[in-house]
Amino acid sequence: MPDVDVAVIGAGAAGLSVAAIAAGLGLRVALFERGRMGGDCLNTGCVPSKALLAAAKAAEDARRAHRFGIRLPEPEIDWDGVRAHVAGAIAAIAPNDSEERYRGMGAMVVRASARFAERDVIEAGGRRFHFRRAVVAAGSSPVIPPLPGLSEVPFLTHETLFDLPECPGHLLILGGGPIGLEMAQAHARLGSRVTVVESAAIVGRDDPECIRPVREALAADGVTLLEGTRAVATEPDVDGVALILEDGTRLTGTHLLLAVGRQPRLAGLDLEAAAVQASPRGVITDRSLRSVSNRRVYAAGDIADPEGLGPRAFTHVCSQHAALIARAMLFRLPARLSYDALPRVTYTDPCIAQIGPTEADLRAGGHTGLTVLRWPLDENDRLVAEGRAGGLVKLTVDRKGKLLGASLVGPGVDEMAGIFTLMIGRRLPLSVLAGAVMPYPTAQEAAKRAAGEFFTPKLLSPPVKRVVGWLMRLP
């Protein structure tokens, strides 16, 4: 008899969700974690980064209070206080992910490295665990680029950035993706000088119309953006570290943050012992997240590489994976992963949110007859009243008005993204959103206004005007 029904490797967002569902259904669950419970999201990712961004926004709001007739002195940054706020946010959420909570659910929590020994056996902490099903949810780690000289200089990743005892004097950031830009803006607003080096364009997967306002906002915050610029080496410097750029420029700073991507944590799992196929992108699965080579094993979160889709390093994808695995593995129901309505957000100020494919993605995929609907957030009454107006809601629809993708930039669009996730995911007609009654005044009215742009030309067409004129003559 197997020792456990479900063995879960990794107590990050994906692993915890699977373990909670399985334990809640009364199954025998073993949860293996060698590091901190909660994984990257709680300890070094989503929670601390958003806490740091909140502190930075508070400082910037104080600087801009004069717009409302309120005069405040330049804010004094207490770095120890900022760090205490970040640590406090982690501590407040940690009990939800704690070992005690999961033991209370009935799960066996094993605080040790886990590796496969056979197709149905995991070894951890000097013990062997036979399982009926296993879920690999070991997550991902920062990519360390093969940059000459990197081994000779101190550098940071998101895993070590939040441990700094003092605010960096000049933070060099290699990589202009979401992590790089969020940390660039946060540190600039908290008093650092910041330079971002990006070999292509910042947040290059997003819609160019949405990137422009973010680029301008970062420049206004004092961030130096070097786009289309490649670093070719690094070396020690009296100030701390130097990046050597492709054109020979020597860029010096006190700290270097590497933010060039993530890679699955495959090392040490001994997947071969369980005949689990993997590539550098992660554990190879089908669309139900089941291993293509060992039907007892599933993968979830950053480490999963579903056929043709590739990994997605988002906490909300971990939740999506956990729900799909519960359906497929526990209830034996049909399940097929789709990212058609996947939202992604860069939490700069202003935010960028993308739900589903961009206009460029759709055209590259062969879609024709597309209509692009736009509504400027300059015309949103709530944002005007709060002095935050600016940004865009951009919707891409097909000939029949089916919503295919939404590109958003502006204050609060991270909260607005859920509307479009629901619309695309549930394949709701655009008329549902155009006819919805939104509370006034809210930023979400812009979603309704953008949807209405599809119907306005038809409603105000000459034939409709003639019909209305005729109807008005009726008694």
TrEMBL record:
<protein>
    <submittedName>
        <fullName>FAD-dependent oxidoreductase</fullName>
    </submittedName>
</protein>
<keyword id="KW-1133">Transmembrane helix</keyword>
<keyword id="KW-1015">Disulfide bond</keyword>
<feature type="transmembrane region" description="Helical">
    <location>
        <begin position="6"/>
        <end position="27"/>
    </location>
</feature>
<comment type="similarity">
    <text>Belongs to the class-I pyridine nucleotide-disulfide oxidoreductase family.</text>
</comment>
<keyword id="KW-0472">Membrane</keyword>
<dbReference type="InterPro" id="IPR001100">
    <property type="entry name" value="Pyr_nuc-diS_OxRdtase"/>
</dbReference>
<dbReference type="InterPro" id="IPR023753">
    <property type="entry name" value="FAD/NAD-binding_dom"/>
</dbReference>
<dbReference type="Pfam" id="PF07992">
    <property type="entry name" value="Pyr_redox_2"/>
</dbReference>
<feature type="domain" description="FAD/NAD(P)-binding">
    <location>
        <begin position="5"/>
        <end position="308"/>
    </location>
</feature>
<dbReference type="InterPro" id="IPR004099">
    <property type="entry name" value="Pyr_nucl-diS_OxRdtase_dimer"/>
</dbReference>
<dbReference type="InterPro" id="IPR036188">
    <property type="entry name" value="FAD/NAD-bd_sf"/>
</dbReference>
<keyword id="KW-0560">Oxidoreductase</keyword>
<dbReference type="InterPro" id="IPR016156">
    <property type="entry name" value="FAD/NAD-linked_Rdtase_dimer_sf"/>
</dbReference>
<keyword id="KW-0274">FAD</keyword>
<keyword id="KW-0676">Redox-active center</keyword>
<dbReference type="Pfam" id="PF02852">
    <property type="entry name" value="Pyr_redox_dim"/>
</dbReference>
<keyword id="KW-0285">Flavoprotein</keyword>
<keyword id="KW-0521">NADP</keyword>
<keyword id="KW-0812">Transmembrane</keyword>
<dbReference type="InterPro" id="IPR012999">
    <property type="entry name" value="Pyr_OxRdtase_I_AS"/>
</dbReference>
<feature type="domain" description="Pyridine nucleotide-disulphide oxidoreductase dimerisation">
    <location>
        <begin position="343"/>
        <end position="450"/>
    </location>
</feature>
